[in-house]
Amino acid sequence: MAFALLLRLACACVFYVTVCDAKLCRGAHDLKAEYDYVVVGGGTSGLVVANRLTENPHGKSSSKVLNVLVIELGDVDDGSPGTLVPGIQTPQKYWHTYTSVPQKGLNNRTSQLYTGEVVGGGTVINGMFFNRGSALDYDAWEELGNPGWGWEDLLPYFKKSETYSPATPQIQAQYPASPDLRPHGTRGPVGSSYPPFSFDQIRNWFSGWASLGVLVNPQPNAGMAVGAIHSSLSLAQPNVSRSSAADAYFRGEASQRENFDSLTAHRVVQILFEGKTASGVEYAPRNGSQTSHVKVSREVIVAAGAARSPQLLQLSGIGPRELLTGLDIPLVKELPGVGYNFQDQPSYYIALNLTKLSGPIPAWVDPTSDVYHEKYAEQQLALYYADREGAYTMPYQAGSDVAFLPLKNVTSDYAKVIDHAKTIDIDDISPSGTDPSIIRGHKAQVNILLRHYASRDTAVHESTFNGSPLMIIVALKPLSRGSILINSTDPKTDPQVDFGTFTHPTDVDVLVASLKKIRELLNSPAMQELGAIELSPGHSVQSDAEIAAALINSTLSSWQHPVGTLAMMPEDLGGVLDPELRVYGIEGLRVVDASMMPIIPASHTSSTVYAVAEKAADLIKASQSESGQYR
Ligand SMILES: Cc1cc2nc3c(=O)[nH]c(=O)nc-3n(C[C@H](O)[C@H](O)[C@H](O)COP(=O)(O)OP(=O)(O)OC[C@H]3O[C@@H](n4cnc5c(N)ncnc54)[C@H](O)[C@@H]3O)c2cc1C
Ligand SMILES: *[C@@H]1O[C@H](CO)[C@@H](O)[C@H](O)[C@H]1NC(C)=O
Ligand SMILES: *[C@@H]1O[C@H](CO)[C@@H](O)[C@H](O)[C@H]1NC(C)=O
Ligand SMILES: *[C@@H]1O[C@H](CO)[C@@H](O)[C@H](O)[C@H]1NC(C)=O
Ligand SMILES: *[C@@H]1O[C@H](CO)[C@@H](O)[C@H](O)[C@H]1NC(C)=O
Ligand SMILES: *[C@@H]1O[C@H](CO)[C@@H](O)[C@H](O)[C@H]1NC(C)=O
Ligand SMILES: *[C@@H]1O[C@H](CO)[C@@H](O)[C@H](O)[C@H]1NC(C)=O
Ligand SMILES: *[C@@H]1O[C@H](CO)[C@@H](O)[C@H](O)[C@H]1NC(C)=O
């Protein structure tokens, strides 16, 4: 999640250098002509898979060294403070911004999608929440025709990816943060832990929720991700610095492996085929058009993220027939679902005034605001560098405290919301010409999701509080679906992002209920101790219709969690990937990133992406022993 309030901290107090030795920054001319595996995208998932495939140089059962090449559009990050210090905004040069097509559910407003374009991808710039969905969220993947993808199957991979460190005793005494290691890993690459600091007013927020009968949940990572939680973060201990995929799976030993090559600042522009078998990739410098190609003997592994992976498949001839023939792209495999089933979580910002709060608020708040304490910010940053204490140990974007609520805990009118949802015909809300398989898949998902809406074991509502006068409400399990489709054969042109926000009216109903719930919270004695006042949408906005209008006027389509555009589902439900993440009808081509999720979990997405990629690596290794599978 990214705050609308962006601050450029004028901190020139630390000098840093670009860490980039000969092997990391090799050019195209240093590459081999052929690799066993080429990974497209050195982001979150791509680095996991490349690391795991190269960690045992002899593969599973052959004596041949398996060589892996990662091609990444971005650069290696420069190790500057914004990439490491949680409280400093991440450098804009690693962000890519897509602007959507006008959203008809948002009065034709456009909305932004942000992604990371840098080695490590989203995890170099993200808000650092490191939490999992509920067991039901993953069991739904299995239910959609994917054996081996339920919660119990994924739990070992969540563990494998992380080293979890409990919160300090002081934090444990004041906040719900379980030291229970059972659902956690303690030897994995990604640091998962808690800042040693919090703002006192966040305790009012927990008390407020508790007074409304909301569960204060110290253990949200064991399959019941509901309640008011003090979230673990992707934070490495003992350094108290961001733990990105670049740090966890790439920098250091892995990047120096003889069998692990990487090429940065280059874009894969096309997957090459011999018949229906992926045989290599074509790539070009990021800003150039001079292409080169590299051969692949085993698999092309696509990990370009939920926006660019469907773009690449479409450019390569895998996708909806009409779209590709309209652009004169020769069809390699017709797959109507490529780019559809796009999901993100719509978010709405509620501006507050905490009129009785005199103490500090997050130091990185807009310096132009009347509550910014410049002296406090300077002092806290010095404290961070000296002792790894203080406000800068908390993430810049949204802190670490969130409420995940089931619909039944948001509104006593939950049955009305669900009954209304049942009257909506997916055929009527799908764009005309939508392939019937996609509509069948959407209906199958809505059936499952409405069961989730009636359950107390998974959430539909997220809201944040980081101690500043702002709360964000998020619809975690939207019923709307969008698409990401190319409109040009130029790989440098962004694909068209259509979130489909609020095309299913239930998503508005859920956020209306959420806003009303936040008003109850603001009126609780604990929040009134802070003198909480709602500034926007404000008290003139009262009836459900008025609240809905305010939401439609200002909701953002994204919570920076794009998923689902190459869904792992049966082909006849509009799916693109089989349960081994292989593209239907093609040999030697897998997708391992957030695009594979059939339904978005009620969670932030990075820890799920890591778990999925860890499992993908095992699936790929397992198939190495099946001799003869790849030529
Ligand atoms: C601003 C922001 C805030 C977020 N906050 C949180 C949070 O607090 N908690 C959380 O859990 N999640 C958060 N997320 C989401 C999380 O980071 C992502 O879900 C996750 O990183 C996605 O991983 P991925 O492997 O699917 O894609 P990415 O990590 O995006 O990796 C894709 C990579 O492929 C590269 N690439 C793309 N196209 C090509 C091409 N053609 N050739 C070569 N390379 C290519 C890209 O440059 C990128 O590095 C946030 C994301 C963002 C952007
Ligand atoms: C949005 O745009 C569509 C197509 O241009 C138009 O038909 C519709 O009236 C617009 N809606 C609003 C609220 O402006
Ligand atoms: C939801 O409400 C029920 C009934 O009051 C309560 O038992 C449960 O703990 C609540 N769940 C959450 C996540 O707040
Ligand atoms: C620890 O954090 C500092 C920034 O405060 C950074 O310079 C250093 O590289 C980090 N060390 C590791 C191992 O991440
Ligand atoms: C490459 O393009 C990016 C934007 O796409 C731009 O910021 C950068 O300056 C360009 N670099 C060069 C060397 O042209
Ligand atoms: C917030 O409340 C304080 C105290 O009443 C007041 O001085 C300040 O102007 C208010 N700020 C905003 C943005 O309303
Ligand atoms: C294609 O889509 C992109 C991204 O939305 C947009 O900038 C561009 O104008 C579109 N081009 C055409 C020809 O429609
Ligand atoms: C609509 O959005 C605009 C721009 O964000 C804002 O200024 C205005 O107050 C909003 N109106 C309503 C009714 O929410």
Account of the protein in words:
The protein is α/β, with parallel strands linked by helices. It has a domain at 17-169 and 187-193 and 235-342 and 561-622: FAD/NAD(P)-binding domain (3-Layer(bba) Sandwich), CATH 3.50.50.60. Helix content is 28%, strand content 17%. The strands form seven sheets. Strands 1, 2, 10, 11, 12, 13 and 23 form a seven-stranded mixed β-sheet that branches. Helix 1 runs parallel beside helix 19 (606-624) and helix 16 packs across helix 18.
Shape: globular
The chain-level mean pLDDT equals 93
CATH architecture of the domain at 17-169 and 187-193 and 235-342 and 561-622: 3-Layer(bba) Sandwich
Q: What small molecules does the structure contain?
A: flavin-adenine dinucleotide, 2-acetamido-2-deoxy-beta-D-glucopyranose
Number of helices: 19
Low-confidence stretches: 1-20, 627-631
Instruction: Give the strand tally.
Output: 23
Report, as a whole number of angstroms, the end-to-end distance: 44 Å
So, the CATH homologous superfamily of the domain at 17-169 and 187-193 and 235-342 and 561-622? FAD/NAD(P)-binding domain
Domain Glucose-methanol-choline oxidoreductase N-terminal: 305-319
InterPro entries: FAD/NAD-bd_sf, GMC_OxRdtase, GMC_OxRdtase_N, GMC_OxRtase_C
Pfam family, one: GMC_oxred_N
GO molecular function: flavin adenine dinucleotide binding; oxidoreductase activity, acting on CH-OH group of donors
